[in-house]
Structure formats: C-alpha cells, structure tokens
Amino acid sequence: MKAKLIFLICLLPLFIKAQEIKNGAIIFDMHPKKSKAPDTTTTEQQQTYPSDEEEEQEQNAKKRRVVKPPKEQNQEPSSVKADWARYGLFQALFHAGFNACQMDGDGYSGYNYLGAEFGIGAQIEVHRLLSVSMEFNYTMRGAKQTLRTDSLSIATSLQKYQVQLDYLEIPLALNINAVTPKNKQIMELTLGLAPAIVTRFKQFDEDGDNVTSNPPEGQPHRFDLSAFGGIYFIIHRNYAIGGKFSYSITRVRGPNLNGLTRLLGEYNNDLTVDFMYILDTAKKNNKKKTNL
After folding, report:
1. Which residues sit opposite 169 in a β-bridge?
2. Which of 86, 175, 80, 168 is nearest to 122 (CA)?
3. Residue 42 has pLDDT above 90, yes or no
4. pTM for the predicted model, two decimal places
5. pLDDT over 60 at 44, yes or no
6. Residues 63-91: what's their mean pLDDT?
7. Tens digits of residue pLDDT in 206-257
8. Once rounded to an integer, what is the mean pLDDT over residues 256-264?
C-alpha cells in the first residue's frame, strides 16, 4: 500500500504538466512555454496617417522657407550699409557766404575788406568717409584801409585806399568725412586748389581817387591760383556751415621797384564764412546687370 502511494505522489507533477487529452491520451509538454506575440491589429488600426490636404500644406510651407546665404568675411555692419546705400553718388552743392580779405604786401594790415562769395558745384562720394568736389564760384576779394594815424599818434584821418578784385574760380577739393559710430556724418574737412580768373578790378588811392586804369602798384595778373583748407559742420543731413582759409600761391601783382609793394609782390589772404546746402541728385545703383 505504501508503495502505491509513493508511486502516485511521483506521478503528480506529470498530471500538473498535462496540456490536453486527445483521443483519450494525455499529452505532456516538458518544454518551457513561449510568450505570445503582441497583438498588433489594434495598434495598426489606431495609427493615423496625414490627409492629402495636410501634406499639401506642409509642402507649401517648405517652399516658403528662405535659405539664408552664408555670411561673407569682412562684411560691413548692416547699419553702415543702409546709410551708405542712402548716399548719392553725385550730390549737388549750393553755397553762399562772405570773405574777410586783405592783400599781403600792400603795406596795410587787417581783414578790412568784406566781399561776397557764392556758387554751385558737385560732390562725388568715393567712400562713405571720402569724397571729391568741384565748384564754380564767384568770389570778391581785395583790401581796404579806413584809418590813418600820424607818426605821433595824436590824430587820425580817413584813409580811402581800397582795392576790389572779383574772380571766377573753380575750386577742386578732397573732402574727408567724420562720422559717428552710428554712421551719422557730423563734420567735413576740405583741402584743395582754386584756379581763378579776374573778372573785375577797381582801385582807389588814399585820397579816394580812382586809379584803376593806372594804379601805382601796377595791374593785377589775369590768372590766380590759391590753396585753401576748411572745415564744415553738418547741422542737418543736407545743411552745413563752416569756414575756410585761402592764400594765393601765385602773385596778384608785383614785385614793383617803386617801393609801393614788397619785393615778393602782393598776395590774396582771405577768411571765408560759408553756408552750404547739399542736394542728392543721383542714387547709387547696386543692382547687377544681367546679359539677356
């Protein structure tokens, strides 16, 4: 009896491992069970695909994307380029002012003669800090003495000596522009030469007599060449005010051996106060030409 009970206890695990009964036979599977594959039918049904309208919208969005070109080295700041593009290649100039004049070598001193100066011109921008200009001016120069003091400095009398010289001149200048970090022009330095031709001459001696036809110092030369330098302050983008100093390189007249003029002759010496208006006349064309 004990032997049968022990035998049944040993067969108990086999009954537990039994899978099914086919045709009255008990089948045992002694291999480990494999995990079942996940059911993908539901997930495939839940997966959604974009509609044709959404695909079309996405394609249109890709077409509208702008591809930025690579940045070039040594590229100027955008603010500088914007202001430089705003500048005109050619700029018209209109200016008017007055001259305080004297003639070195005539024996008198002081900027006593006042004359007008006005003209037009053109300025060409070769760089945002550099430009060249040419003008056509009518300028009045000369010398004048109004008081005469005797040797004892006791009394003074009127002195009517006066020389009037009007010129038509063509100044050629190189201009240097001073700008702020924000590219705003605030000042302009100018340096150049001014060839000129005498258009009118008149002279009065100390007694007020007109000696234009036969002046003691001689007739002035027809041609004059002066060097000048000046500074202008930009009070607005198109308005400037400033001054310049000019001096004759060639003699106005002389030298004269009669003692009335110095041996080196007479030279124009002028100080000018000037008001300038700058008008943009032509814009720079930065578009590239294409051959058709």
Report:
1. 137, 196
2. 175
3. no
4. 0.64
5. no
6. 54
7. 888 999 999 988 899 999 999 999 999 998 878 999 999 999 999 999 876 5
8. 60
Neighbouring-strand partners of residue 156: 149
The DSSP secondary structure of the chain, one letter per residue, reads: -HHHHHHHHHHHHHHHTEEEEETTEEEE--SPPPPPPP--HHHHHH-----HHHHHHHHHHHHHPPPPPPPPTTPPPHHHHHHHHHSEEEEEEEEEEEEEEEEETSS--S--EEEEEEEEEEEEEEETTEEEEEEEEEEEEEEE--EEE-TTSS-EEE---EEEEEEEE--EEEEEEEE-TT--EEEEEEEEEEEEEEEEEEEE-TTS-B-SSS-TT-PPPSEEEEEEEEEEEEEETTEEEEEEEEEESS-SB---TTSSS-TT-BEEEEEEEEEEEEEEEEE---PPP---
Q: Tell me the C-alpha distance between 61 and 204, whole Å.
A: 86
C-alpha 117/C-alpha 121 separation (Å) is 13
Average pLDDT over residues 55-84: 57
Residue 108, pLDDT above cutoff 70: yes
**Cα–Cα dist 13/24, whole Å:** 19
Among 55-69, 70-84, 196-210, 233-247, whose mean pLDDT is lowest? 70-84
Number of residues that this document lists for the chain? 292
The amino acid at residue 56 is: E
What Cα–Cα distance (Å) separates residue 221 from each residue in 99, 150, 179, 224? Answer: 20, 33, 42, 7
DSSP for 48-67, written as a single string: ----HHHHHHHHHHHHHPPP
